[in-house]
TrEMBL record:
It comes from the Eukaryota. One of its GO terms (biological process) is regulation of synaptonemal complex assembly. This is PIK-related kinase FAT domain-containing protein. It comes from Puccinia coronata f. sp. avenae. InterPro entries: Spo22/ZIP4.
Length: 125
């Protein structure tokens, strides 16, 4: 009889993903962190009942804070990506809708700025 390995629990996977996101951000890799954040989002969508509430709240807060930090440094495109991530988590986190108006206003501002960047790319001079 072959011993089958069990898949790690949702709890364990969610915590592992948090560590990976923090690690990627500590290395200034927003791309890698967003990739893991997307994995966490898919895990949450498939396992809402088992996904730890503290991890889901952390994901919402982390993605929102990252968007604001990037916005403050005028990194508009990355800020928009993180804001989009936070909006997705807002839909899933219990109590997340409390911030909906503020988050949507910020996202609309990012969309305007992104459109401006696309029509007027920054010059190198």
């Amino acid at each position: 009889m072959v011993d089958q390995q069990r898949e790690p629990s949702v709890n364990l996977r969610s915590r592992w993903l948090r560590i990976m996101i923090d690690l990627e951000l500590s290395m200034s890799s927003d791309e890698g962190a967003l990739r893991y954040a997307n994995h966490a989002l898919r895990l949450m969508e498939r396992n809402q009942a088992e996904y730890p509430a503290d991890e889901a709240s952390w994901m919402l807060a982390k993605s929102w804070d990252r968007s604001i930090d990037l916005y403050a440094t005028r990194n508009i495109r990355e800020s928009k990506l993180w804001c989009e991530m936070s909006l997705k988590w807002m839909e899933l986190v219990v109590g997340g809708r409390a911030y909906e108006d503020m988050m949507n206003r910020h996202y609309r501002d990012l969309l305007k700025l992104t459109a401006t960047l696309e029509t007027n790319p920054p010059s190198l001079i």
